[in-house]
Amino acid sequence: MNQTLINTAFALALGSGAFTAHAAALYNGDMLSITAGVPTHDGDGALLTISSGSWFGIDFNGNNTLDLSERFAALFQGTTGFIIGMPTPPGASHPGPPVPGDANEIDAPYDLFGQTASDYTTLGITGSTTAGLDMSGWMWRFYGMDVYMGSGAWGAGFSNGIGNFSWDGVPGHAYTLDYHARVPTSDPTGFGGVGMAWHYEGVVAVPEASTTGMMLAGLGLLGLAVLRRKRAG
Fold first, then answer.
1. Do 56 and 34 form a contact (C-beta atoms < 8 A)?
2. What is the DSSP letter of 22?
3. How far is Cα of residue 30 from the mean position of the Cα atoms in its chain?
4. What are phi and psi of 220, to 5 degrees?
5. Which letter does DSSP use for residue 25 in this model?
6. Measured between alpha carbons, how far is 196 from 192 in angstroms, rounded to an integer?
7. What mean pLDDT is reported for the chain?
8. Residues 219 and 154 in one domain
9. Using CA atoms, how far apart are residues 36 and 47, in angstroms rounded to an integer?
10. Both 46 and 4 in a single domain?
11. CA atoms within 13 Å, Cβ hemisphere of 50
């Protein structure tokens, strides 16, 4: 009986902190940073593509693939990056490029054809490397209009509302996330029926100690202390 209690106490004290380290799933509160996109320009300063990092693209030619020339905006981390399980409020979007004071939680507001766009989600993103990430609440803001982008997958290997997620399951290691969705045909932005693409790169940083984890560890240590006192008595 005492050995069982000891094993339980050790599991509470040590097991909770080790669980996430090797899992391929994401858990509420896990944080994904966003690596800034790096634009490449021609000799006249015109954008050629986003050569690395995170970016936003549009399948303008409708061939269901995204050419390098169809990466139209570099993406940068917003005030938080991705926080798993947390919906986010709408960010800045207005005529003209971003101005000082514009903000958004996931990624920073970005310049798209001289207008300010941003991304947010009405549902907390959840999932794993095997199932992908549920992005069915994904929203795109452009020219002050909110566009539902939680479905309408296009291109090979993409499913409605699911982001293709790659990560080795180790906190502090890199991830990639690719998401494709098509603008609803009746949308007033002028992009109705057009395929959009988001590509994110960054690092998965699990919170150092959740409230639940600290409570479990505390209970485990308390259990060990009680057992030791009983044995000493």
1. no
2. G
3. 10
4. -65, -45
5. B
6. 11
7. 85
8. no
9. 16
10. no
11. 24
For residue 148, the model assigns a pLDDT of 96
105 and 62, same domain (yes or no): yes
Q: Are residues 12 and 124 in the same domain?
A: no
Asked if residue 127 and residue 53 are part of one domain, the reply reads: yes
Burial (CB count <10 Å: 0-12, 13-18, 19+), residue 165: buried
Region 29-49 average pLDDT? 95
Distance CA 5, CA 27 (A): 28
What integer pLDDT is reported at residue 24 of this predicted model?
Answer: 81
Q: Domains in the chain: how many in total?
A: 2
Torsion of CA 211, 207, 178, 106, to 10 degrees: 80
The reply to whether 108 and 124 lie within a common domain is yes
Task: Quote the DSSP letter at residue 36.
Answer: P
pLDDT in tens, 171-229: 999 999 999 999 999 888 889 999 999 999 999 997 665 444 444 455 455 554 545 55
d(CA 164, CA 175): 10
Range from 8-22, 25-39, 208-222 carrying the lowest mean pLDDT: 8-22
What's the mean pLDDT in 120-132? 97
Write out the two tokens for 173: 């290691």
Q: Are 79 and 189 in a shared domain? A: yes
- Alpha-carbon separation of residue 62 from 44, 100, 140, 148, 184 (angstroms): 27, 35, 20, 20, 15
Six-digit token string for 171: 């906190």
* 59 and 45 in a common domain: yes
Q: For residue 219, what are the domain limits?
A: 1-20+210-233
Tokens of 190: 């002028």
Look up residue 233 and give its two tokens: 């008595």
